[in-house]
Specification:
hydrolase, L-asparagine amidohydrolase, 2 domains, Asparaginase/glutaminase-like, elongated, AsnASE_II, Rossmann fold, Asparaginase/glutaminase_AS2
């Protein structure tokens, strides 16, 4: 009977994988925006929130220790493969990844497309470094661990937990440079809340992710180059031409309004398609769908459109798509289903 009771109340095992960022940053002043990212190790992050050890068996690993503006494909692949390895074990119940906020949405979406598990994966960071007055990292981390051990988080793909909110990886975006409520899901809204560890879910991601995703990075050691172009009035085709010349396999064009390029850029992108580069029209607006029934004749130019993904996430999806195919019809299908 005693063994049965102990088994019933066994704490879940949650791995915290640290990559750096503001949550692991430090400063000489509690009232300054000047700080160094990625200076606090995973052990110190865990020690700063002793309450998480009361609710779960916590294990920590340092995957990298960088500001997320330094995030790159190599770290993505290393992180994704480690997450897959850990979640394949019956002794691991969930993963929390500490990460800088600058590129958190991109890393979250990448993992959402390549992790092969239903177990919870939660990304978390901070807008104020560990030495700041009212640092937000400790409570964010506590909430993230609670979400990672919540049975309702199973099967929802990669989640981002910040400022008492739960967001789906595909939908979330950083929307403010400094505010603690910077993360939002402009097209769909948050999928849940978590207040001092009490998580509630209200929505369910519907696009393909994790176990149902078409992508697998098990044997992939590198990703193809995909560049993003940001369009503006009185633009020029130079960057489009340079991207092609320098070996880009794909281009995400963040056009004006409904993904509209400047005329000379339009022609340069059309020539890029003729040279074998996959071009996806996106928008610089920040929300809404970039449609293929707008002012641009996508059939004529051979362009694809990004659905409602922002440019940085469209880049992630196109990179992974190009590891499987160059067929525009198949890549279009990925954009409509993932």
């Amino acid at each position: 009977m005693l063994l049965a009771l102990n088994a019933t109340f066994a704490k879940p095992t949650i791995y915290i994988l640290a990559t750096g960022g503001t949550i692991a940053g430090s400063s000489s002043s509690a009232l300054s925006n000047r700080y160094s990212s990625g200076t606090v190790t995973v052990d110190k992050l865990i020690a700063a929130v002793p309450q998480i050890n009361e609710i779960a068996t916590i294990k920590g690993e340092q995957v990298s220790n960088i500001g997320s503006q330094e995030m790159n494909n190599e770290v993505w692949l290393k992180l994704a493969k480690r997450v897959n390895e850990l979640l394949a074990s019956k002794n691991v119940d969930g993963i929390v990844i500490t990460h800088g906020t600058d590129t958190m949405e991109e890393t979250a979406y990448f993992l959402n497309l390549v992790v092969k598990s239903d177990k919870p994966i939660v990304m978390v960071g901070a807008m104020r470094n560990s030495d700041s007055l009212s640092a937000d990292g400790p409570l964010n981390l506590y909430n993230a661990v609670n979400v990672a051990m919540d049975k309702e988080a199973v099967g929802k793909g990669v989640l981002v937990v910040m400022n008492d909110e739960i967001h789906a990886a595909r939908e979330v975006a950083k929307t403010n440079t400094t505010a603690v409520n910077t993360f939002a899901s402009p097209n769909t809204g948050k999928i849940g809340t978590v207040i001092y560890g009490n998580a509630k879910f209200y929505m369910q991601p519907t696009r393909k992710h994790t176990k149902n995703s078409d992508f697998d990075i098990t044997k992939i050691e590198s990703l193809p180059r995909v560049d993003i172009l940001f369009n503006h009035s009185n633009d020029n085709p130079d960057f489009a031409n340079i991207a092609v010349k320098n070996g880009a396999k794909g281009i995400i064009n963040a056009g004006m309004g409904n993904g509209n390029p400047y005329p000379s850029v339009l022609e340069a992108l059309g020539n890029a398609v003729k040279s074998g580069v996959v071009v996806v029209r996106d928008s610089r607006v920040g929300s809404g769908e970039t449609t293929n029934l707008g002012e641009v004749d996508d059939v004529k130019y051979g362009f694809l459109t990004s659905d409602n993904l922002n440019a940085q996430k469209a880049r992630v999806l196109l990179m992974l798509s190009l590891t499987k195919t160059n067929d525009p019809k198949k890549i279009r299908e990925y954009f409509l289903t993932h």
